[in-house]
Amino acid sequence: MQLQLESIVSKGKSLPDVSPLVDSNFVAELETLVLTAGHDAAKLRDPVSIDVSRDGDQIAQMNGALKAVAAGDMIMRDARGVCCSIIYGQDNRSPIAADTSHVLYVAYAPPGVSTDVVEAQLRKIEENVRLCSPAAIVLQQRVIAA
Asked: Are 36 and 49 within 8 A, CB to CB?
């Protein structure tokens, strides 16, 4: 997260031009420093769960390459496998695209990061989304503790 912030502030790089749904998340991350993945929920397959990686887990990275995920990483998986890893990032199956209309934001917080900070991140994302889509509907917001 710090490297992304430095590249925008120090190097004058702009936000990627994908979707206001991506921008809403990214801007909130810069403010709260809580790492959050944004997924196109329509591309995920039930059941979706937050988990800890095990030996043999792999993720298809954004560039399409398969990467072994070390045991013990915080991950999210769906019926087809790992779709997000704290260490390796998001998969190439479920990223938000220009036509995404149903988003799942997942904020990952290691021990020591308070529930209040995570909830503030989720509220900030919602505020940012409403700037471009005032009629957005939040279906669910909850914090799951390990």
From this structure: no
Both tokens of 121, joined, read 């991140």
Q: Determine the number of helices (DSSP H) and then strands (DSSP E) in the chain.
A: 3, 8
Contact 36, 42 (CB under 8 A): no
pLDDT band, residue 4 (cuts 50/70/90): very low
Lookup: tokens for 84: 């997000």
Distance CA 117, CA 60 (A): 30
pLDDT tens, position by position, 13-40: 665 566 899 999 999 999 998 999 999 9
Name the H helices within 63-113: none
